[in-house]
Structures are given as structure tokens and as C-alpha cells.
Amino acid sequence: MTTPIKIVAILTARSGKAEALRDLLDSMLAPSRAEPGNLRYDLWTDEAEPERFVLDELYENAEAVAAHRASSHFQTYLAAINDLAERSAFTLRPLGVA
Boundaries of each ABM domain copy (predicted)? Predict the structure, then answer.
């Protein structure tokens, strides 16, 4: 049995970078969702702070996460993200998930 992996990333745009951050995050949606092993890849924004974004990702297993991180679109994201945003990411394992 494989264990699903959830990743939640919270990204807050640096001053004047919200539009560029949104463009980068939007560019990740389709290719990430198309990856084998990807079960969910959703982008949210904070109603109170619209320059704060949340990525909600779910993968079948650790191998799918590794494949995502090795993809060209993730490498493009990785090269740009630190210039655009403060970032916190959490990799989670299920304890009580329906």
C-alpha cells in the first residue's frame, strides 16, 4: 500500500511582486495536474491578504512528489520563487483522513 503525501505551501508576495507571483503559480496548475500520481493541485488566495497564496497539493506517494520536483515546470518555479515570495511549505502524512 502506498501512502499519499499532501503538501501545503503558503506564499506571500514580496513588495510589488504579487502579479508576477500569481502568473508563476498559474503556470504551474495545468502541468502539475497532468503529472502521473498527482491527485490534487489547487491554488487559493487569502481573502484578507490577496497577496498571500496557498498551494494545496496531493500526491499518490513519495515517488510522485519526487517526479513533480524533478519536472521542468517545478525547476522553473524553484528558480523564480525566492525573488517573488516568502515561502513556507509543509509536507504532510495522513493520520485521520477520509
Answer: 5-98
Residue 98 lies in a domain: no
Fill in the DSSP letter of residue 47.
Answer: S
Nearest residue to 34 via CA among 81, 76, 73, 61: 73
- Cα–Cα distance for residue pair 29/64, rounded to 1 Å: 16
pTM of this prediction exceeds 0.70: yes
Average pLDDT value for the chain = 96
Domain membership of residue 10 (yes or no) is yes
- For residue 58, the domain's CATH number is 3.30.70.100
